[in-house]
Amino acid sequence: MQQPQGRVWSQSVSVALLLMAPFDFLASLAMDVYLPVIPQMPEALGTSAFVVQLTLSAYLLILGLGQLVFGPLSDRIGRRPVVLGGSAAYAVASFSLAMTSDGEAFLALRAIQAVGASAALVATFATVRDVFGGRPESATVYGLLSSMLAIVPALGPMLGALLSDVWGWRSIFIALGALAAVAFLHALFRWHETLPEVERTSRSGFRSMLSSGSFWVYTLGFSSAMGAFFVFFSISPRVLMGVAGYSQMAFSLAFATVAVVMIVAARSSRRWVVAWGTRRCFATGTVLMALGAMILALCTDQGKPGFVAFIMPMWIIATGIVLVVSVSASGALASFDDKAGTAVALYYAIQGVVVSGFGTLATVVFGVGTPWALVGFCGVMCGVNVAGLWWLSRQPRT
Predict the structure, then answer these.
(1) Count of C-beta atoms within a 10 Å radius of residue 135
(2) How far apart are CA 20 and CA 22, in angstroms?
(3) How far apart are CA 154 and CA 126, in angstroms?
(4) Three-state DSSP class for 168?
(5) pLDDT at 47
(6) DSSP 3-state assignment of 136?
(7) Domain boundaries in the chain?
(8) Nearest alpha carbon to residue 389 among 318, 340, 327
(9) Residue ranges of the chain with pLDDT lower than 50?
(10) Tell me, what's the pLDDT at 179?
(11) Does domain 13-135+160-191 have CATH number 3.40.50.2300?
(12) What confidence score (pLDDT) does residue 4 get?
């Protein structure tokens, strides 16, 4: 079958990643890079702590909901204009944030920044689906990009603290704007359209995805993987510094080992997908997440958490996370090549709801000072994955 026009992508996987990764990186980085300066923001902006808090929650809300708009839009007008428009809006908003001294204006500009990040992010992942869908390279691309979404929150606050200490809090947003401007210029000359011409007039509704069992199974699997890291990220400072007595540097180094495991696993994911296929990789990743959670439960039951009892079981969970993430997008979006932007938007919107809702619930129920929150979340969500795989195994293969 002749490949639809517009899907030719001359760049290698590594070059494509260098082109697309900055938008993934920036969308995540803007969520928490200025967390270290939050206490000084009310005075700097002449506003209340509540308004400053709104600049965080509004960004997260718009980043997720905006994809439900930009996904269908990218299916109608193409990926290139959406990613360029989004990155331009992000850059302008970031530079403007560095210049404002008014709390309400700051909140409005954060909303514009989130709109830009949402557009660029959904167009990036829709392009991945256009170019690499159904190819073994998709596992490497999805694995590395999704691992970045998990790793950046660990690095963002440290970067923000460093910039603020040296040049002041405004330098954080100047840096975001500069990075976005560079990414925009790179995309302007290298990012050509990947949406096939025959798809530009298609109607992009959500009904077909919401009625697809495979879409739900793999989307919830992706949510389980990203949620597991979210819970780990949420509880690890309190567990390691508050309970185990680690210093800030010791905590950072221990946390970094998990990031290294995820990067190494992502680099190997293509080989696993080729050898095992989508469903077996998904199942193996789920088993590893459950196994790591069981070992973590045994260690937690036996005594005080530390590197061996908390971080090393997380290595197993992290490997499972990468395996699940590497194939979940392909599994969820396989039937929606004609509306990849819409499907990607819904995929990430559902993930955001599950991660923020059930991930936060786990930390509230079990507390952030104990590994049991991670054990509980992995236990429940791995059970959901297993039930989904069982359901898929009973469906006729097409």
Answers:
(1) 14
(2) 6
(3) 26
(4) coil
(5) 87
(6) coil
(7) 13-135+160-191, 207-393
(8) 327
(9) 1-6, 199, 201, 398
(10) 96
(11) no
(12) 41
